[in-house]
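In response to a reviewer's request, we include the raw inputs and outputs for one of the modeled complexes. The three entities were modeled together in a single run.
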Amino acid sequence: MKLADIAQSLNGELIGDGTIEIANIASLENATTTDISLILERKFIGLAAQSKAIAFITTAPMDDLPNQVVVSNGRKVMAQCIELLHPTEPITQAIHSSAVIHPEAQIANPVMIGPNVVVGKGCSIGRDTVIHANTVLVENVVIGERCVLHTGVKLGADGFGYYEEEGKWKHVPHIGRVVIGNDVEIGANSCIDRGCLGDTVIEDGVIMDNLVHVAHNCRIGTNSAIAGLTAISGSVTIGSNVQVGGQAGFSNHLKVGDGSIVMAKSGVTKSFPPNSIVSGFPARPHAEQQRKEAALRQMIRKKTKAQ
Amino acid sequence: MKLADIAQSLNGELIGDGTIEIANIASLENATTTDISLILERKFIGLAAQSKAIAFITTAPMDDLPNQVVVSNGRKVMAQCIELLHPTEPITQAIHSSAVIHPEAQIANPVMIGPNVVVGKGCSIGRDTVIHANTVLVENVVIGERCVLHTGVKLGADGFGYYEEEGKWKHVPHIGRVVIGNDVEIGANSCIDRGCLGDTVIEDGVIMDNLVHVAHNCRIGTNSAIAGLTAISGSVTIGSNVQVGGQAGFSNHLKVGDGSIVMAKSGVTKSFPPNSIVSGFPARPHAEQQRKEAALRQMIRKKTKAQ
Amino acid sequence: MKLADIAQSLNGELIGDGTIEIANIASLENATTTDISLILERKFIGLAAQSKAIAFITTAPMDDLPNQVVVSNGRKVMAQCIELLHPTEPITQAIHSSAVIHPEAQIANPVMIGPNVVVGKGCSIGRDTVIHANTVLVENVVIGERCVLHTGVKLGADGFGYYEEEGKWKHVPHIGRVVIGNDVEIGANSCIDRGCLGDTVIEDGVIMDNLVHVAHNCRIGTNSAIAGLTAISGSVTIGSNVQVGGQAGFSNHLKVGDGSIVMAKSGVTKSFPPNSIVSGFPARPHAEQQRKEAALRQMIRKKTKAQ
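The model returned the following structure tokens for the whole complex.
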């Protein structure tokens, strides 16, 4: 593919020689002399100088690089450029022979279901959804369209619900569902438990990283993003467009409003209104935490000086 | 089923019309006009008013609800009521054809073993135990009766034990077992490593949430409860009736006494006697932590005011 | 095997009766009257006194124990002694019939591949590597020689990379690889995502515990050790011989220099030079953290006294 064609496809400004043939897209370190690479932040200019790439996608013209395609939205263009040079195969009906699918499960067409996937009783899967190897839908799991469940995801196990009787734990049977909307992506080895009576709901467009735990009866609103190793306890409601950092934790029965940001490693123990930015454990508004931290630092400095 | 029959089965007090036919049990939000629902805490009275349910299980008579069954132990009754309307199928011998079971493994009858389960050499499984899909018992795993291993559980892998030689890590071979008692429940994708020389022991009645890590040579006492994403390092001994919150961590070779509570996100770095309540990192008695927190808050407030 | 032979094999000093027949090696608690056990630290002398073992491996002569083999490197000798009495079977070509291997994957000989393992397109596996049951290599995963992937490991899933468009998350396609060196060991249910353009690289001799998350484009240097439930965000570079405690977290795009120690539950938010020892969240040099803690404790004590 010629560099000029790439520039045109990406709606970018061409600088340099448009007739160069581009074989592939690669990272700055790995690029060979027939590759295009990306430099989305000026701080990587040093790496670019050492790169063997023959052309670069940039977000502003850079002086020392010969052949550039200058674009406005770097990450989007990266995705487009990868797609251009490595077109994703269209989804066609492909259910691996080793998958174990309950006879009454409703499977749309086309879907892709990988090896050793298990789809239990009462499950349904919408069209254009991809389920990677060794993922399990235990029971009563409803999945929308265009979802991606990465390898090892576990949906629909009974939640951690018990009552005590004579010093022993007795399990509360779970009859609810896991309901996953459209365009949801769930990371490897993440687990979402079914509701006890009601449903555990993951709304449209939610993205979830690896090894995330979502307990019974939770609801996560549209387009929210949950980073790795986060633990969400039972009956938590997270609004739409919420961003949750890695290893955050949530006590049960609380609500986090739309558009909020929960920073990494936060421990959320109470509800927060929309557009909150919270951090720490117990989680509090981030600005307040920073004031406390600053006051504390000052006190310690003074104390240390005084000694 | 008539409401009066339900009231009688649950040993509850009937208020209203006992002749109503109840089709199902459902959450307040999901209930239709033939369903019974539950309102176990008065704060949910608002939701109950909006619910379409025709009858309610309550823990005290509530003025505005027409048909009620008033009971004393809400969660127990919820479990009983689910069981009444959705009876659990009795466990019958059912080993899925895709399960891979070592020829010398000892499997009691009845047990239920799901698809893609792997049961390795030297394993045994007690009667009435249920093992969900894609769970693996690597080697030398002994499981008692009436246990539930949820989907993706991994038991009996070698632990994280090494010695250093010339700057390289050398693995210490593991020959111990994982020994799981009776009535134990282990959450999805949790991992319990086998002992190095001795055993990793999970005693009767322990319940464990999703994505929990138990390292080699640990012992967890009867009826203890471990919440999600907790990490327990090697040779830790947790007593009986201990409750551990989510994302807690334990350094190796320590003991936590019977009846203790380890709060969520605690980092336990030393042993604690029975009936301790600990929080924070490093974990300390919770009352002490709260005093410190209060003193700190006061100092910061004073400081901030002074400025 | 005679105790004298064991002493000779382990290059240890024999104390007591070398003619005793040793049947097995066992922990102090589990040993029977024909077993040898270990007491590697003097604090376990009480347990040793109660043990039924007939002989002990010690790191210094102990007065009250009859038959001893005194050695210098306890953990190494434990490994050797286990190997002596429970020789590991040599690795022979053994690919379980239920494994699903892409026809173009390159599999060396000998390797051991357990049940329900999935090896996708573009993968290769070096000789003497062992892959335990239900592990998945999604795509473009290159594994060196003498590695051990424990049960449930997930390598090569697409990373958590998105751009936002009209309030929705759009996935960036991933075309990079996961490249694992030689002598690497990865714990049960750990996940390592493939690079986006470049590679996610785990260098020779790295050891990783259970339920660890390594995001796209990370690099972990030779002989580093990562404990359980640690979360490493995208494009993090960890040097050689680094030790990371359990439940640590790393923000993206940072570097931790060779020989550093990142203590358990640390939250690393910026880069650190070689040989750093860091703790806390945000992680700072451990000595500095301890000084702050001490100053804080003193202020609180004074305050509490004053009241």
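As requested, we also summarize the result in words. Chain C has a mean pLDDT of 95. Residues 286-306 of chain C form the longest helix (21 residues).
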